[in-house]
Write a structure and sequence with these properties.
single chain; about 210 residues; alpha+beta; L-fuculose-1-phosphate Aldolase; 8-stranded mixed beta sheet; 6 helices; 8 strands; about 15% strand
Amino acid sequence: MTELELRKSILSTAMSMNALGINRGTSGNVSARWKNGFLITPSGRRYEDTKPGDMVFVDAGGEPHGKWAPSSEWRFHFDIYRDRNDVHAVVHTHSSFATTLACLGKDVPAFHYMIAVAGGNSIRCAPYATFGTQKLSDHALEALTGRRACLLANHGMIATGDNLQKALSLAVEVEALCEQYWRALQIGKPRILPAREMNTVIRKFRDYGKARKS
């Protein structure tokens, strides 16, 4: 993929977040690894008014390059790429149900086997810290240990992937799981799957969506 193609794909992903209803307005942000840094959506700009050339390149030293300032959340994107070689794209949203649970400071337990899609037997909620700060990034990294997604207390959600499509798909799945968990809580206390079963599911997910070996 060329740099221009990647810039277009980041913008398309950001537009898709809003079209899918998992984000609104200028909240949220999208990035993808590029060379020795990453490209990220600019700060405070409506995606409808944004062009591929407006994406901001942040280099390996954390220095931005471009016409616009990078998203205010560039720090956790920077730290995720630095610490996680398996991550090549990051999607951050303020989706309604994920944010609702995050405002309650709730982890999402293994009420459904699909929780394993996020990499473990729960989706953790990182403690609150002011947006755009190193402290928030530190909390997010800890919550993402052994995981591909997490909630951010009183804030929103982070989903990662080895490409933009997978990161966006995971964000959609996490939001659906948060909605299901929220709805189950309205009726009673959901049954939580035991660790042994979730370990089985996690192993099965390692081959999920992969081509069959010949």
